Amino acid sequence: MAKPDPNLVAIDIGSSKVAVLIAKPQDNGELEIVGKGRASNRGTRKGNIVNIDAAVDALRRATEEAEVMAGTEISRAYVGVAGTDVRSVNSRGMVSVARNTHEITRQDIDRVLEAAQAAALPSDREILHAIPQEFVVDEQGGIVEPLGMLGHRLEVAVHLVTANTTRRRTLLTCVNRAGVEVLEAVFEPLATAEAVLTHDERELGSLLLDIGGGTSEFAFYSDGEVMHSGVLPIGAGHFTSDVGMVLRTPFAEAERIKLRYGCCLAGMLGEDEGISVPTVAGGPARVIPKRQLCDILQPRAHELLELVRRELEINGYEESLRGGVVLTGGGAQLDGLLELTEQVFNTGVRYGLPQGLGGLVDVIRCPTWSAASGLLLYGQSAQSLRKKSNVRHGFSMRGMMGNLRERLSDLL
């Protein structure tokens, strides 16, 4: 049996970069960041592997950088999953408590969870997470832990997250080829939420929106649990592509212009300064007004936000955003996006920054590192739960994260 690795490692494989964090558990329970690595990634598109060699190369470069900084070797890691093939659905299960005492046991809980996951899945899909939202005992709902309660009928509502089997295995194969064993593949919004959402936000009803390079992931939380989640095929790279195509400038220049001058809300623009735009053919640069750049970025930003809003509306959650919206991910830093989000959702909006970690916190305290930070916290809680019980992972996300959330709520 392999000796447990004392360190925790998180690998965030995005469409434009691979981010790696190494953390060392402290005696007080805190995780101290001791190493980080980042490498550009040309092997992934919209969260899915399209070039294995390029993806493996990016993984190796990022892990080696983190290893050098931490002075240790990486052997195992929690890996984020966020491709466009990821789907989520809410399901229900029900079983009868047949024994004479009618006391609900762990076996009953296991059976009802299995019943909730019994919905027929296509042969090319598998369940990543089965997260209980609530248990119901004889029509009494809102129960977090039914163990030991008395009743004739036990029901559960669960949030199922599924992924394409082949694409997930391809991702794991890439990580293995880079010399790292995958401890668990985690749907990234669920991990990110552990690093950026407060206890009150989870309870009141909040939307987490993580804008990456090729995709944007979202998760809606209410009553402490995830109620709806998904992936949209729009990310920060699409903003850059729009700028490049409309202004007919190279992608690298479009990215530079977007980061330096970009704003996606016309009402925030002051005096209309000029922006120098190089041409594709290498000819003389031309000057455009900053408002023209905004006219390119604002429609794409509004499209993304409207798609998320419609997802909430269709599923009946649009009026439940009492906790507001939390923006994170590298693409969330575009000027004007926070204010535009406030307009679209008509609620409070803030940036989500990693919390609950020690060590190199000043280096990672930005939206770009939210997913990797969340994977560390997720992994810490998962390992703690496994040490305390033999309950299979996925039984209770609330139970697994309870103590962690209390600690984070004190920090935020």
Keywords:
412 residues; alpha/beta; Dna Ligase, domain 1; 6-stranded mixed β-sheet
The gist of it:
By secondary structure, this protein is an alpha/beta fold. It has helices at residues 52-70, 106-116, 165-177, 188-196, 199-204, 236-247, 251-261, 290-314, 337-345, 361-364, 370-388, 397-411, and strands spanning 8-13, 17-25, 31-40, 44-45, 48-49, 76-81, 87-96, 125-137, 140-143, 153-164, 181-187, 206-211, 216-222, 225-232, 274-277, 286-289, 324-328, 349-351, 357-359.
State the share of residues found in helices, binned by percent: 25-40%
Unreliable residue stretches: 390-412
CATH architecture of the domain at 87-161: 2-Layer Sandwich
The main sheet comes to:
6 strands, mixed
Molecular structure report:
The chain is an alpha/beta fold. The protein has a domain at 87-161: Dna Ligase, domain 1. Helix content is 37%, strand content 29%. A 6-stranded mixed beta sheet has the order 11-6-1-2-3-19, sandwiched between helices. A 5-stranded mixed beta sheet has the order 14-13-12-17-18, with helices on both faces. Strands 7-10-8-9 form a 4-stranded antiparallel beta sheet. Strand 12 (206-211) and strand 13 form a beta hairpin. Helix 6 (236-247) packs across helix 7 (251-261) and helix 6 runs antiparallel to helix 8 (290-314). It is globular, with a radius of gyration of 22 Å. Mean pLDDT is 89; it is low at 390-412.
